[in-house]
Amino acid sequence: MKQIKFIFTGPPGAGKTTAIATISEFPPVSTDVFSTDSLSKLKDTTTVAMDFGQITLENGQKIGLYGTPGQRRFKFMWDILIQGGLGLIVLIDNRRPEPFKDLAMYLDNFSEFIEKTDAVIGITCIDIKDTPTLDDYQDFLKERGQIYPSFAIDARNKDDVLFLLNTLLTCLETS
Amino acid sequence: MPQTLRLFSSQLSVSNLLTLKIFLGLTKTDRVAVWEYTDDPEAATAVLIDTDTPEGRSQVKEWVDRKKSQVLIAFSDKGIGLPNGVLLLSRPLRSADLLAVLQEAATHCTSGSAGQERGKSSGPAAQVSALLEETNTSASFTGTGRVLNFLYKNHDKALKAIDRVGRSVIFDVWRRRYYTINLTRTEVEDLLASPVRSVQIQEMSSNDLAKEIQNIKAQDSDPLFWTAALAISNGQLMLGLLLEGFYKLNRWPDLKKLGADPLHMKLAALLRSGGTIDHLAHFTKAPVENIIDFINACQVLHYLENQQKSMPSVSPVEQKKPSEEKRGLFARIRSRLGI
Amino acid sequence: MKIKKGKLAAFFGFKSQNQEESTEQKSLPVTDKPIDFGEDIHTEQPAVIDSAIADSKATEPVAINSENLLEPSTEIEEKTVEVEEKATVADPLEVEATNTEFKMATPEPTMDYEHEEEHLIVNYSKEQLAVSEEKLEEFMRVCPGAYGVLISTVDGHELLYLVKRDIPVHKISTMNSSLLALGESIARESSQKLCQFVILENSDGRVVSLRINDILMLTCISSKDTNLGMLLSVGRNTAGDLMKILS
């Protein structure tokens, strides 16, 4: 049976591992190691290969939930992980210094994949740092001529993660 | 002085007729137009016909054909297939809906003859129009339609709305916030759905706004406007929107905040590339009225691109047909995740 | 034989050095198809020797500080630098070596997405690094087929390396960090303890990765001239020595 998967991407610390853990039917397999650069100010560890979670459908089909490493130096892993991907969930950490730049980078780097599938955007930690606002993100996307579903989410909240997935599925149904 | 206007009805059930007469009494305090019931169709300013009966439908057609001067109001569940220019009063009969339609009827009555009557001082239409113009130049606003439509048109202002019993709500429309200390969310929704004339609306300077909202918690007006727009839409497009228009989103509505209605999600996804109401209805298999409700709500929150009157030869929506296999897979994923 | 030595510029505040010992230049095919690799890396930024910093901090640990780094040059489109005997380059990845000149790739300003993460927080003294470098040289001597040995952080930043061929050190560091982490995860999922080596056995060589400590790893690249047992044994000893030096 063909492997089907959703891809979670975004900068380090945005909540990819957490989001996958929230909905996976087993604790996700992670490849986290100590971070040795400035990221360690935000978190002790970082994903260097992938996170892997799974859900099994009623007919036995497995849906993979793959998280990419956040840093761009791991782009080779992104290209490997998107193979067979159904769609992309981009998580953006609002606390980072330039979240728009982050968003642009992920949308640009995954543009071919998004073109073939679709993407949704979850903004995390907007409760900790309230600017830029969700409207600002929408304006930013509008300037780029893009309309992607974008929501403020808490990656620890199952309903929030499911809402993102549901929206992505709806978009996929129309594309 | 308010102008007295008369309403005649046809094909209404006895209970609806009784209710109608009671509701007309609510216009007694209106500063612009007071409505009375009349049994004489020729003396009426407006005629209300129940078009959910075959007789009612043929009466409307006949009335339109005879090009009578009265404003026609159709009382109907769906209002599909109504001739142009006929106003719709949705079933069941509700006071807020009736008052809004009567206001629109008063305006139609004035604007319908405005072209010919402008400059003349005689005739009821000219008097209503004059009164409207007069009140619009004063510190507080009056106008036509519902409070929500009024706020939509004044999206760059801060406005204070005071209801009949003196309770107030401040709308900082530009910043999409509202402030109130004595109205519940439902009451503010009702206020938004009520006719402008039943509410006193004042524009606020930025200084006044800052002073008045000092100790009041700001609330997000988007969900409020969204809910109100859906509630009062009744399958009728807002003024300025066309049934055959081509609609496209300029940004994704925050449906997490506005209520995760599956149909709205699907419509938003389709409207990213745009489409007509017919195409959307065809694709989603949803009633046209529900799609119109969504379009209205998007318009109120400025989620729509400027409408294009001419429809592209092939609607982008038309091209989107997910395979059966994919649809099955998505359904299984949804079922597994409980979404 | 030509050996390239490198240190992560960000670690020291001055750039790494190439010491030419040979004219041998060979590229190492990493995969069949070219991998699109992120352009964000710090090593795009050619580092310069800041002698003042180097001298004053010769025996002290050098904290990583953006002030110690050269600002990226955005003016040059493609700059050709005449290389003297001790040519200084930022990173072999970004340098195409010819007989006597290096071409520097143009930094893409819009790609500087990861600058925040590239300033390493770990630091070592020059003495520690000098001793570590000796260990790498020893490794190369003992393993005749070895043509590359790298110390890098477990999250993919190269720290110190010695290569005899023109191989993309930064890519190798980053990819091996993923590989080692995957190997360790697979071991855990297979209910096995302590992943000691990740071994890539290829038709004409081997790549062996192993941990030095919690934050550092060693990658050994060799042709088939060194047998696997030897490579693993010397690799493990070198990692053990490095663990003591870089503790």
Task: Report on this structure.
The complex is a heterotrimer of chains A (175), B (339) and C (247). Chain A has helices at 16-23, 75-81, 99-109, 111-116, 134-143, 158-173; strands at residues 4-9, 32-34, 45-47, 51-56, 62-67, 85-93, 119-124, 150-152. Chain A is α/β, with parallel strands linked by helices and 175 residues long. Chain A has one domain (4-173): P-loop containing nucleotide triphosphate hydrolases (Rossmann fold). Chain A has a six-stranded mixed sheet with strand order 4-5-1-6-7-8, sandwiched between helices. A two-stranded antiparallel ribbon of chain A has the order 2-3. In chain A, β4 and β5 form a beta hairpin. The longest helix of chain A is centred in the last third of the chain and has 16 residues, at 158-173. Chain A starts with a strand and ends with a helix. Chain B has 339 residues and is α/β, with parallel strands linked by helices. Chain B folds into three domains: 3-136, 3-Layer(aba) Sandwich (Rossmann fold), CATH 3.40.50.2300; 140-223, no CATH class; 234-328, Arc Repressor Mutant, subunit A (Orthogonal Bundle), CATH 1.10.10. Helices cover 44% and strands 16% of the residues of chain B. Chain B is built from 14 helices and 13 strands. In chain B, strands 6-10-7-8-9-11 form a six-stranded antiparallel sheet. In chain B, strands 2-1-3-4-5 form a five-stranded parallel sheet, with helices on both faces. A two-stranded antiparallel ribbon of chain B has the order 12-13. In chain B, β3, α2 (54-65) and β4 form a beta-alpha-beta unit. By secondary structure, chain C is α+β, with helices and mostly antiparallel strands. Chain C folds into two domains: 3-118, no CATH class; 126-245, Dynein light chain 2a, cytoplasmic (Beta-Lactamase, 2-Layer Sandwich). In chain C, the strands form two sheets. Chain C has a seven-stranded antiparallel sheet with strand order 2-1-7-6-10-9-8, sandwiched between helices. The interface between A and C is medium-sized, with 31 and 36 residues. Chain A: Keywords: GTP-binding, Hydrolase, Nucleotide-binding. Chain A: It comes from Candidatus Competibacter denitrificans Run_A_D11. Chain A: Pfam families: ATP_bind_1. Chain A: This is Small GTP-binding protein.
